[in-house]
Structures are given as C-alpha cells and as structure tokens.
Amino acid sequence: MTHGSGQSPHRSGPTEKCGVVGVALDDRAAARPLYYSLYALQHRGQESAGIVTHDGFQQHDHVSMGLVGDAFDEADIERLNGESGIGHVRYPTAGSLDKSCAQPFTVSFKSGSLALSHNGNLVNADEIRDELAGLGHAFTSDGDTEVIAHDLARNLLEADLVRAVKRTMSRIHGSYSLTIMHDETVLGVRDPEGNRPLCIGELEDGYVLASESAAIDTLDGDLVRDVEPGELVVLHEDGSGFDSYQLVERENTAHCFFEHVYFARPDSVIDDELVYEVRRELGRQLWDESGIETDVVMPVPDSGRAFASGYAEASQEAGAGTEFAEGLMKNRYVGRTFIMPTQDERERAVRLKLNPIKSTVEGKTVTLIDDSIVRGTTSTQLVALLKDCGAEEVHMRIGAPPIVAPCYMGIDMATREELIAANQDVDDIRDAIEADSLSYLSIDAVAKALSRSRADLCLGCVTGEYPYDIDGEATDREVERPVIEGADLAADD
Ligand code: AMP
C-alpha cells in the first residue's frame, strides 16, 4: 500500500513494507505458530500485528497496534480458535498510525468470510476502488488490501476459488505477496513479477506460508520452496499438503533487489538464495570494484555486517592488510531512525543508536561499510563521529547502487526530494557527507551477486525505471496495465 509521501501521483494510503504468514494444521490450534512466525517477521513491520483464525464455523481475529509482543497476551492467543489462520505485521510510516490500515483485513460476504494479509503495493488500486464503489461496495480504508478483498469477494460470488483469484490477479497491477483465508482455507498468492518474497514450509503437522523462511525455521519446519511468481498455493485444510496453480506467467520477473540488500533477515532464503551469502558476495564485489586499503574496515551495524565481512575477506585474499573491526556499537533498544519525522530527530537518533569504540578508530584510516545511503543522514553523522574520535581518514563503501528514485512497490524509501542521490552525483555526495572517498556498488554487480539478469529484477529505485506502469514514471519493459471497468469480466478463465 502507498502512503502520502507528497510525491506519489496516487491517492495516499499507508506504505506497506510488511510481513505475512498463513498456517493450516492437523488437530492443533494455529494461533501460537502464527504468533511465533510474526515474531520472526517483526523486522518487516513494527506498527501493528494481527492474526485471524477460522475454527470451521467462524472467524476469530485480534489485530492491535504495536510490536508483536505487546499486541497479544495469552488470553488473546487462547481466544483465537481454529486450526488454520493468517497473520500480518505492518511497517510504520510517520503519520499513518491508523488502526483502519492494520491487518489482516477481514470481510464477510454472501458466500463466506475472507481475511487478507498483504505485503506490497498496488499501483491501480484507485481505479478498481472507484469501479467497485460505483457498484455499491463500501470501503472503510484507503488501503489497497481492502480493494483486493472486495474484488475477490465479488469474484467469489460468480466463480470458484481458483478462478476468482485468477480474475482478481488479472485486474490488480503492482506488487503483492498475499496470504488469504477463505472460510478455513488458507491460500498464498505471489504477484506475477515475484516482487515481494513468499515461501512454503512444512511442519510436522501441517504447512505454513511466510514472507521469509526464517519464520519457518522458528517453527522447526522445513523450507519446501518459494511460491513462484504468479502462483496460487492452496493449503489443505487438514494440514496434509498443498495444491499449486500457476495462474499467470510472465517472461521476466521483477524481484526486489533491496530485499536482499537491506530488508530481509540475513538468515532467510529468498528465491533460492541465502540473504547472508548474497550480502557477503555483494561485499566481495564491492572490494573488486572499489576496494581501498585502510587500517580497518568496519560495518555500520547491523545491516552492513555481512557486506563488511565479504569485503574484508576479499581484501585479505587480495593481500591487503585491512583488518575487520566492529568499531561501532549499536544500542539495540533504539528503533529505526529512518522513520523519525524530522531531520533533527533523525540526526539525534543516529547518535543515540551508534557509538564508536574510540580505540578502534583513533589514529587509523577507516573504511566504513553500509548497505545503502538513502537521505545521507546516517553516513554524514558517522563520518563526523569517526573523525571526532580521531580517525585519520574515513572512506565510505556502499553495498548498493545510489538510490535515485522512490519505491512504489512497498519499501518506504523517502521522496525524490529527500533522496541524496536523486539530484547529485557521487562526488557531490562525498562532499556532502565529508568522507575522504565514497563508492557505491554497480547495478551489474548486484545482478551478478543475485545470479539474475537485470531484466529479472526490480531496479526502480536505482534506475528510475520501473517494471510496473506507474503514473508519471518510466518503465523498464513492456508492461500491460489492466483495463478496468468491465473488461475483466470477459477475461479468459
Ligand atoms: P539514511 O541515513 O537516510 O541515508 O539511510 C541509510 C540507512 O538507513 C542505512 O544505514 C540503511 O541500512 C538504512 N535503510 C535503508 N533503507 C531503509 C528503509 N527503507 N527503512 C529503514 N532504514 C533503511
């Protein structure tokens, strides 16, 4: 879902960078495994958490603002009866602390009940909402998840589950990894471009769908595989297996590279790649492309760690005497600085969050490694901090290309005006952050580390060209945006 960045050409709604999960078990309540999986996916969203279960007769739900640990107490879990269910954690965005956008979203209609958890962002939600509103559907939020729910509910009046999902997929355009519960049946759907992750896991007594495999590990399950782009997975109600329907096929995918660079947990496997290994490989590529010999190389914790370890390893293999050092300590009780509403607060928060170990940097030349630069707040603060601590030189190396354009596909990035690389070249940015040198990774190195061609990645934030048809933005491929207003009803089932 999108939120009013002031930049987006779309009606504002909350930006969704979320975690989704779904579970179907044999003879065991689904609520507790769902709760644990949401804990494992907490990094994907801290604003609200919710679970909806179905006991064969009716739905039970508990959706609350806050972290998973605060959103549920024992009594809430006990009340969530049923052996199947779905869950959601939602990412916070300044100004959108609004319960109407918390998920899973639920709706009852003539042929049953639906609950939906969505990670991603539709770019044509307004068109579909307008059409459905004209047909009498009443909307309670401005979010795109509700649009998917209403569209699916309407299609379910005329078609079976698989056809109804296919019809909805033919109408919605954008990124979506969904877990859905129709009565007690749990489904998973991944958009035809595979933009956001979704995977299937096997438990002793059932199956699970989750944004990331770390959630499956937490339940002592085994990762079966990723849900394929354009695939619908239907979990058997008795936990005995799942059915797969490849509903839409595209020549190319558009996997979000930033999931691997920043967003996902390093211990998750996404699209067959362990995120930790991808980050280490990105670090190695960074050394190959722009390595510089300094006394120490240190990560910006936590996200820079795997990059710095790969970078340091490659530098040592190349005979450079660069020592890996953890020179910045992180206060783990400070939340994400990124979402602080003002620049002043963001700067203070970086200082609250990270503190250098003086003896590691004093009198040394330092290479500082981070996964990305967005507004430039973190790097500016850290370069100054390390110099204050006596670093002789500070060289920044970044494990991603410059972020030059906003993300419309579900990662809360900042607006074009706020992005430091949107209108400045690397030399200007180096001057702005006062580093002795600055290098980013190339797009080709990212594709190489991910073992994919550029044509199979969503690179919108680093190229300004998107794999979806977004109003006012360029595309990087032939994209067909569905024509709304009746045309879908004639869609080929
Ligand atoms: P900035 O300080 O604005 O340049 O942001 C860069 C820092 O924020 C880096 O340390 C990244 O690890 C982190 N970061 C990058 N993207 C995001 C995001 N979408 N949400 C929160 N933090 C991010």
UniProtKB/TrEMBL annotation:
Keywords: 4Fe-4S, Glutamine amidotransferase, Glycosyltransferase, Iron, Iron-sulfur, Magnesium, Metal-binding, Purine biosynthesis, Transferase. It catalyses: 5-phospho-beta-D-ribosylamine + L-glutamate + diphosphate = 5-phospho-alpha-D-ribose 1-diphosphate + L-glutamine + H2O. Pfam families: GATase_6 (PF13522). [4Fe-4S] cluster binds at C256, C407, C458, C461. Pathway: Purine metabolism; IMP biosynthesis via de novo pathway; N(1)-(5-phospho-D-ribosyl)glycinamide from 5-phospho-alpha-D-ribose 1-diphosphate: step 1/2. It comes from the Archaea. Its EC number is 2.4.2.14. Residues 18-238 form the Glutamine amidotransferase type-2 domain. Binds 1 Mg(2+) ion per subunit. GO terms for molecular function: 4 iron, 4 sulfur cluster binding; amidophosphoribosyltransferase activity; magnesium ion binding. Mg(2+) binds at S303, D370, D371. The active site is at C18 (nucleophile). Its cofactor is Mg(2+); [4Fe-4S] cluster. The keyword Transferase applies. GO terms for biological process: 'de novo' IMP biosynthetic process; purine nucleobase biosynthetic process. The keyword Metal-binding applies. NCBIfam families: purF. Catalyzes the formation of phosphoribosylamine from phosphoribosylpyrophosphate (PRPP) and glutamine. In the C-terminal section; belongs to the purine/pyrimidine phosphoribosyltransferase family. This is Amidophosphoribosyltransferase.
